[in-house]
């Protein structure tokens, strides 16, 4: 709008008649400027009106099919009171004196609260058992693949492959024993590799196997089982026709703090591991990659000991970063970034840094992907206060755009189970963009610049029937 106003003023100013009038007398120039003012006001008014009309149109057209997803569902879970006895793990984590919080209880594998959030196999989401539960997501329940095995794709991301019109879900396979490398080490599982699952509808997933495997013998290899491979993400390079995987590579103590790159000619692998490095020379832990509409891709990573995020474009082959880098959310201590774009604006969900324990999510927005990024507040809606303050007891990992449902996304999160990491669960919930942000930090002519990002709690939900056919 500012641009339009400026160019209009310039146009009026440079008109010969106007210039002569302006040159003659003060009162005439006053009249001309009042006229210009009037024109501008009318122009603004029609612009704003037009924008509103567009908004209403977009809003109503997608609301009709997704209204169900945006229902606010309260959750009045009864939290059993903490018992006297606690597991040795829990005691070690918190010490014997502190009274346990709900989060402590959630992390204590012997507590009833823990059992509430990690229900047993009987309630598993099973695509083979079609019927009333068909197509429904049950956040936090065991989720089986088409062979009846629990899906192993933690810290994952989803690639939509246009050629095969198939979704591929990549994530960490953590199907091994959980242990501590040493007394003060975090709970870990040896590197098994990156799993891949394929689906047409984002609900029924077929296991495509391990597409990048851990290294069993060579102890100096990045993928040696004793190391760490987290948050793998795959993007497709239209120019080279190759699938490029980026991941967090670390040693058991998280001191290597690097990114790893692997490549494949097929979305189902096998991927060839290339190398790891510290992007722009900085430590890099939680990370993600984002491919923009113009084919340009970006790496976003937690750096400076997780105190800030860094963002920078990848090279055209997606094998490296360029020299360009911006520091964003400096001093905010955010991790687990998940980026998406809607109507030209970039959005990001992040978590705080509390290890495996869940914490409050934040939504951020930016007009340019390189920043500045503004923090808009907690996107979580529904559930209850504890749910919202702990991202529904999960941590962001990816946001999936839904083709055919503009403005609707799936928020993918991990409900980590640090006492048995392979049993960590998936919390997928509908995410929409629209309405007023809670903390709009910037105003443009009195209008907040950002739309609210909302993640709606549902105990059970599904996408509108046949949504993928409308894509
Ligand atoms: C499916 O729903 C119908 C109607 O709500 C119900 O009568 C039936 O028992 C349900 N079947 C299963 C397997 O839950
Ligand atoms: C072990 O891995 C390192 C690093 O990738 C490599 O340089 C070396 O050649 C490998 N050794 C063997 C025996 O494969
Ligand atoms: C990690 O730290 C522990 C204790 O400080 C040490 O014993 C161990 O050798 C370290 N491991 C690696 C892989 O650096
Ligand atoms: C990545 O780019 C940097 C320069 O920006 C260069 O120094 C480095 O060698 C490159 N890495 C690879 C693996 O090509």
List the helices and strands and how they pair.
Layout: H1 2-14, H2 16-24, H3 26-66, H4 88-94, H5 102-107, H6 112-117, E1 154-161, E2 166-173, E3 179-180, E4 187-188, E5 193-199, E6 206-213, E7 228-237, E8 242-250, E9 258-264, E10 272-277, E11 287-291, E12 297-303, E13 308-313, E14 326-328, E15 335-342, E16 345-351, E17 362-366, E18 374-377, E19 380-381, H7 385-389, E20 395-401, E21 408-415, E22 425-436, E23 443-444, E24 447-448, E25 451-456
Helix pairs in contact: 2-3
Bound molecules: 2-acetamido-2-deoxy-beta-D-glucopyranose (NAG) (4 copies).
Strand content: 25-35%
| Ends distance | 33 Å
Q: What structural class is derived from the secondary structure elements?
A: alpha+beta
CATH superfamily of the largest domain: Glycosyl hydrolase domain, family 43
Number of domains: 2
Which hetero compounds are present in the coordinates? Answer: 2-acetamido-2-deoxy-beta-D-glucopyranose
What is the CATH level 1 assignment of the largest domain? Answer: Mainly Beta
Mean pLDDT, rounded to whole units? 86
User: Judging by the overall fold, what is the CATH architecture of the largest domain?
Assistant: 5 Propeller
Which shape, going by the Cα principal axes? globular
Helicity, as a percent range: 10-25%
* Spans of at least 5 consecutive residues with low confidence: 1-26, 50-62
Provide the gyration radius in Å. 25 Å
Number-wise, the strands total: 25
CATH topology of the largest domain: Tachylectin-2, Chain A
- State the major sheet: 5 strands, mixed
GO biological process, one term: carbohydrate metabolic process
Family: Belongs to the glycosyl hydrolase 43 family.
Protein name: Packaging protein UL52
Pfam families: Glyco_hydro_43 (PF04616)
């Amino acid at each position: 709008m500012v641009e339009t106003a400026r160019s209009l003023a310039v146009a009026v100013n440079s008109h010969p008649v106007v210039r002569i009038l302006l040159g003659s007398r003060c009162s005439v120039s006053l009249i001309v400027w009042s006229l210009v003012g009037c024109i501008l006001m009318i122009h603004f008014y029609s612009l704003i009106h037009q924008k509103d009309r567009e908004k209403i149109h977009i809003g109503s057209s997608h609301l009709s099919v997704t209204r169900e997803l945006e229902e606010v569902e309260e959750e009045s879970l009864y939290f059993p009171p903490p018992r006297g006895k606690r597991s040795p793990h829990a005691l070690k984590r918190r010490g014997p004196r502190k009274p346990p919080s709900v989060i402590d209880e959630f992390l204590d594998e012997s507590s009833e609260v823990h059992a509430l959030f990690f229900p047993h196999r009987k309630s598993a989401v099973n695509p083979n058992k079609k019927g009333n539960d068909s197509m429904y997501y049950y956040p936090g329940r065991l989720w089986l693949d088409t062979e009846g095995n629990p899906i192993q794709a933690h810290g994952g991301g989803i690639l939509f492959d246009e050629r095969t019109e198939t979704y591929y879900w990549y994530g960490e396979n953590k199907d091994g024993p959980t242990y501590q490398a040493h007394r003060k080490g975090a709970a870990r599982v040896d590197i098994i590799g990156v799993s891949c699952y394929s689906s047409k509808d984002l609900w029924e997933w077929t296991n495509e196997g391990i597409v990048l495997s851990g290294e069993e013998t060579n102890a100096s290899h990045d993928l040696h089982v004793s190391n760490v491979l987290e948050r793998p993400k795959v993007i497709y390079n239209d120019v080279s026709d190759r699938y490029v995987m980026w991941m967090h590579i670390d040693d058991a103590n998280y001191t290597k703090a690097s990114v790893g790159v692997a490549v494949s000619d097929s979305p189902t692998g096998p991927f060839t591991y290339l190398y790891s490095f510290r992007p722009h020379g900085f430590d890099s832990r939680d990370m993600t990659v984002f491919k923009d509409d113009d084919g340009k891709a970006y790496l976003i990573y937690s750096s400076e000991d997780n105190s800030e995020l860094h963002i920078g474009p990848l090279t055209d082959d997606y094998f490296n970063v360029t020299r360009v880098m911006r520091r964003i959310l400096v001093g905010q201590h955010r991790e687990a970034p998940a980026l998406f774009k809607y109507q030209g604006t970039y959005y990001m969900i992040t978590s705080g840094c509390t290890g495996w324990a869940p914490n409050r999510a934040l939504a951020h927005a930016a007009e340019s992907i390189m920043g500045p990024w503004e923090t808009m507040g907690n996107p979580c809606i529904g559930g209850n206060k504890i749910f919202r303050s702990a991202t529904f007891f999960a941590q962001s990992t990816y946001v999936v755009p839904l083709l055919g449902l503009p403005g609707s996304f799936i928020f993918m999160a991990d409900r980590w189970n640090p006492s048995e990491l392979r049993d960590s669960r998936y919390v997928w919930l509908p995410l929409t963009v629209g309405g007023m942000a809670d903390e709009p930090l910037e105003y443009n002519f009195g209008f907040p610049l950002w739309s609210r990002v909302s993640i709606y709690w549902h105990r059970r939900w599904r996408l509108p029937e046949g949504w993928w056919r409308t894509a």
